[in-house]
Amino acid sequence: MSNSLPFNSTLIQGLFTPLPPEHEPDTNPGFWVVLQGNSLVVPTESQHLLLSGVLLPIVSIPETEPFKIGLWQGKPLRIVRITMDTSLPPGYEALPFMGPDTRLDNTLATIAGRAAQILHWERRSRFCSHCGGKLVRIPAGWGKRCSSCGDEHFPHIHPCIIVLVRRGAELLLIRNAAWNVGRFSLVAGFLDFGESLEECVQREVREEAGIDVTNIRYLGSQCWPFPSQQMIGFLADYAGGEVRPDGVEVVEAHWFSEDALPLSPGGKRSISRWIIDTFGKSMGMTERTQ
Ligand SMILES: [Zn+2]
Fold first, then answer.
1. Ligand 1 centre from 157 Cα, in Å?
2. CA 147 – ligand 1 centroid, Å
3. Least enclosed by CB within 10 Å: which of 107, 120, 193, 284?
4. Rounded distance, CA 25 to CA 227, Å?
5. Could you give the CA distance from residue 71 to residue 19 in angstroms, rounded to a whole number?
6. What is the pLDDT along the chain (290 residues), one digit of tens a residue?
7. Cα of 154 to ligand 1 centre, how many Å?
8. Ligand 1 centroid vs 77 CA: distance in angstroms?
9. Domain locations in the chain as residue ranges
10. Burial, 176: exposed, middle or buried (Cβ in 10 Å; 0-12, 13-18, 19+)?
């Protein structure tokens, strides 16, 4: 099940209870998610990586105002982002929650990702995009209302398809212009106006690799907090055409034997890795998609 992928809520079920956002008085000790870029600040030595206490444990000028987003193991969980140029005091380090570091398990990566997504929205929802007025929170949720024109704004979560295209025992992989030579992944792209998800799959594969696909099946989905996507995974069969990258966004597109795949840039926490690992083999695939 894709529910158990990192960054999805199932990973922190039982540990984290989300609550409406709140700036509560600093009297109740709890836990802190302190972010610096896409990294979680943790103690270098301790086994317990989530920082605790009443006050922000890192002396700095926060980039965002801290606030409580829920309970972690029954205690308040506060989140804050510090600036990239804040130098961490001795005994602390910042671990990328997308990266391969095994100290940061999937649970911590998930709560850090949740915090990053929330703080991204808070940072970008200060003013009304309609009239420029100040936005204020609609109680009990993440929505905001314009204090000037009354427009309501809700978190921007961007739907994005990602698709494994098969031709017998071969998989279609592409290299984005931004990736290093030798690294490949699945075709992916943002949903456009007027599209069903299946139409988006067909368009993205045609645009990025020049081929047509058919028999599109939904596989699963993943919250992807970089900064705020919803990745929706599909499997599709080759239907025709010659593989030809667009040369701009995608610089290479090839069929790879399922037994000789190149490096994937998404890393072990990504849905692309999960899709390839789970659905990349033609033998027994039908059973696994059930
Ligand atoms: Zn407004």
1. 20
2. 7
3. 193
4. 29
5. 7
6. 888 999 999 999 999 999 988 766 667 889 999 999 999 999 998 878 888 877 777 766 667 778 889 999 999 999 999 989 888 888 899 999 887 667 888 999 999 999 999 999 999 999 999 999 999 999 888 999 999 999 999 999 999 999 999 999 999 999 999 988 888 999 999 999 999 999 999 999 999 999 999 999 999 999 999 999 999 999 999 999 999 998 999 999 999 998 888 877 667 889 999 999 999 887 655 444 43
7. 13
8. 31
9. 2-123, 126-155, 158-288
10. middle
What's the CA-to-centroid distance between 124 and ligand 1, angstroms? 14
Give the integer Cα–Cα distance in Å for 198 and 196. Answer: 5
User: What class is the 158-288 domain?
Assistant: alpha beta
β partners of residue 34: 80
Helix (H) or strand (E) holding 106: helix 106-123
Ligand 1 geometric centre to CA of 136 (Å): 11
pTM: 0.90
Q: How far is the CA of 145 from the centre of ligand 1 (A)?
A: 8
The domain made up of 2-123 has a fold known as Nucleoside Triphosphate Pyrophosphohydrolase (3.90.79)
User: 144: CA distance to ligand 1 center in Å?
Assistant: 10
227 alpha carbon – ligand 1 mean position (Å): 24
